[in-house]
């Protein structure tokens, strides 16, 4: 017997009977609508109840303060290299008006660069969870359609592109520099310097538009309040598993972990051992008077103990001509001591070490500048790597703590710490404390 049950018509057949000729178009429209609802541009795609203007406002105000400090300390780090002193120090020779603020970097307090660069790098790491949370909180706006509604909206989208892209670029290049000795193509100094100006300009423009609104929102309703027509709040939020305060606590906990595991590289003892996520310099130097961090080893620049043997001498040049000194002759001169740290652009530093050697101002007098040299060009024996030559200002030469160091902590320098002679200057970046010195040229730079 045949099946006498009547089969229900398919949706396509039903529509064909109801609207002859229009069924395929209607079905395609429905499919397209269903697909659009599953795309990131759909308002219901983003369902987290945490998102909203109040949550984003708190993160934005934290970043406002933190990024401002990052920008200022970054500019200070650039000034510490004295790029307007001599081309050998200048890694952005085409900076033009962007170098308007440069000034003669001081030698006091002697821990100045250790502080400013330590804050710059540590704060940059600590702000990573805040930045990622901020980007997560506003990601629905990046997919909003239409992408451009008016010329004003186009400018706003462009500023957001510069803001988000600039933030990611600066943080990524900075982290690469401190973690992996920088793997980004091109000069880190140039890319990071110009990227900072582009990013901070977009950041200021965005802050000028959003900070007043953020303050009003937090004053009126606090973190748990609502904002009429909130563009970040989901129209169909999922059941909450975490409050906004809980989400902020998670971000803060992430920043605290990064602080604990990074800040210690600027201290001795247990804090340095806790700094597992940041470099402490080159390989651990061991114990003893020379047992402190190294910015670059002799092997990394192609030097051996043979290169620094009995054939080494120091050439001192100036109005008095070219003078040559062996290490024994330098040791026979008046020796002076200075307690100074080494602080590097990667953010790590040592505690104060006791250096001993000949004052730069005494060598300047031998070179023909008894009342102080206007500047100094230092040249190293090293065969490769940046800053084989570095320039120092008159205030750095004249400071009585500035030495051509021959020993440290009661012993001669090790090869990795610059034997037979190195520069040590208060408050200067580590790369300006040139190691394996072969020539000092005093005079106008």
UniProtKB/TrEMBL annotation:
<dbReference type="InterPro" id="IPR000572">
    <property type="entry name" value="OxRdtase_Mopterin-bd_dom"/>
</dbReference>
<dbReference type="Pfam" id="PF00174">
    <property type="entry name" value="Oxidored_molyb"/>
</dbReference>
<keyword id="KW-0812">Transmembrane</keyword>
<keyword id="KW-1133">Transmembrane helix</keyword>
<feature type="region of interest" description="Disordered">
    <location>
        <begin position="274"/>
        <end position="295"/>
    </location>
</feature>
<dbReference type="InterPro" id="IPR036374">
    <property type="entry name" value="OxRdtase_Mopterin-bd_sf"/>
</dbReference>
<keyword id="KW-0472">Membrane</keyword>
<protein>
    <submittedName>
        <fullName>Molybdopterin-dependent oxidoreductase</fullName>
    </submittedName>
</protein>
<feature type="transmembrane region" description="Helical">
    <location>
        <begin position="119"/>
        <end position="139"/>
    </location>
</feature>
<feature type="transmembrane region" description="Helical">
    <location>
        <begin position="55"/>
        <end position="81"/>
    </location>
</feature>
<feature type="domain" description="Oxidoreductase molybdopterin-binding">
    <location>
        <begin position="310"/>
        <end position="442"/>
    </location>
</feature>
<feature type="transmembrane region" description="Helical">
    <location>
        <begin position="191"/>
        <end position="209"/>
    </location>
</feature>
<dbReference type="InterPro" id="IPR008335">
    <property type="entry name" value="Mopterin_OxRdtase_euk"/>
</dbReference>
<feature type="transmembrane region" description="Helical">
    <location>
        <begin position="160"/>
        <end position="179"/>
    </location>
</feature>
């Amino acid at each position: 017997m045949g099946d006498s049950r009547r089969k229900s018509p398919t949706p396509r057949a039903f529509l064909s009977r109801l609207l002859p000729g229009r069924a395929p178009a209607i079905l395609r429209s429905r499919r397209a609508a269903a697909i659009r609802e599953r795309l990131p541009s759909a308002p219901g795609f983003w369902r987290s109840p945490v998102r909203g203007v109040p949550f984003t406002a708190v993160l934005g105000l934290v970043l406002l303060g933190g990024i401002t400090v990052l920008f200022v300390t970054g500019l200070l780090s650039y000034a510490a290299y004295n790029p307007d002193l001599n081309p050998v120090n200048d890694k952005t020779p085409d900076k033009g008006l962007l170098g308007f603020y440069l000034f003669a970097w001081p030698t006091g307090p002697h821990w100045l660069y250790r502080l400013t660069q330590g804050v710059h790098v540590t704060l940059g790491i600590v702000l990573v969870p805040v930045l990622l949370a901020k980007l997560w909180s506003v990601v629905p706006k990046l997919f909003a359609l239409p992408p451009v509604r008016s010329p004003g909206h186009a400018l706003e989208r462009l500023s957001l592109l510069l803001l988000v892209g600039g933030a990611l670029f600066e943080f990524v290049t900075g982290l690469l520099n401190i973690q992996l000795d920088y793997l980004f193509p091109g000069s880190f100094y140039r890319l990071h310097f110009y990227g900072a100006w582009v990013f901070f300009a977009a950041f200021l423009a965005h802050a000028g538009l959003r900070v007043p609104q953020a303050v009003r929102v937090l004053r009126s309703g606090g973190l748990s309040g609502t904002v009429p027509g909130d563009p970040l709040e989901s129209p169909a939020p999922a059941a909450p598993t975490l409050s906004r305060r809980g989400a902020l606590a998670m971000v803060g906990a992430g920043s605290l972990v990064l602080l604990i595991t990074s800040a210690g590289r600027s201290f001795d003892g247990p804090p340095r051992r806790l700094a597992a996520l940041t470099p402490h310099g080159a390989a651990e130097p061991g114990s003893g008077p020379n047992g402190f961090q190294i910015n670059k080893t002799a092997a990394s620049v192609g030097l051996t103990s043979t290169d620094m043997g009995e054939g080494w001498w120091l050439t001192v040049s100036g109005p008095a001509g070219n003078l040559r000194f062996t290490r024994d002759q330098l040791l026979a001169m008046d020796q002076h001591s200075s307690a100074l740290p080494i602080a590097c652009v990667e953010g790590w530093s040592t505690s104060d070490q006791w250096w001993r050697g000949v004052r730069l101002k005494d060598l300047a007098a031998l070179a023909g500048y008894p009342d102080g040299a206007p500047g100094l060009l230092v040249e190293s024996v090293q065969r490769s790597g940046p800053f084989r030559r570095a320039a120092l200002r008159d205030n750095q030469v004249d400071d009585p703590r500035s030495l051509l160091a021959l020993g440290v902590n009661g012993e001669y320098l090790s090869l990795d710490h610059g034997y037979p002679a190195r520069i040590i200057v208060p408050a200067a970046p580590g790369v300006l404390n040139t190691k394996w010195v072969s020539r000092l040229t005093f005079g106008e730079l």
